[in-house]
Specification:
This protein is an all-alpha fold. It has helices at residues 3-13, 17-37, 41-50, 55-58, 67-75, 80-88, 100-120, 132-139, 150-154, 163-176, 178-181. The protein has one domain: Hypothetical protein af1432 (Orthogonal Bundle). The longest helix is centred in the first third of the chain and has 21 residues, at 17-37.
Amino acid sequence: MTREEAYAVLKQHLKNKNLIKHSLAVEAVMRHLARHFNEDVEKWGLAGLLHDIDYDRTKDDPHRHSLEGAYLLAELGLPEDVVYAVRVHNEAHGLPRNSLMDKALYSTDPLTGLIVAGALIKPEKKLSAIDVDFLKKRFNEKSFARGANREIIASCSEIGLELGAFLGLGLEAMQDIADEMGL
């Protein structure tokens, strides 16, 4: 499946514009991480782009989320490792994250929310208005971006990155698509 085909399928299944932007952000960070680790950029990008494809159908039942998405992606013929990464990104299932891609997607998902929240509290409401030091300070504020699970973000250590480096890679990737995200 090409990236363009994947994006078309995503838009068929997700109607919420913010969720589509979230998917684009996760895709951008996953592609950036794949380049950093010398991994398959296209596969990692597809995993990021499609990780929440079932969210409109499963948002009220977190125990179905990612299982339905993985099933759909398998039916569409996506590679098994992409399907598995999508399946295990939801911690509700308790499935082992085995590959570097699995672990990267897991920690990247909430990271994008933290970064977006950081941009939105600035008067400019732009990703260019924030930096890693700003994000590190906000990371430690429990009342800030409550939905961005800090424990999951900190699991970036499982892919060999310390928090500051992970924040930096994520921010850089999202700044590259700031216009597309409207930030």
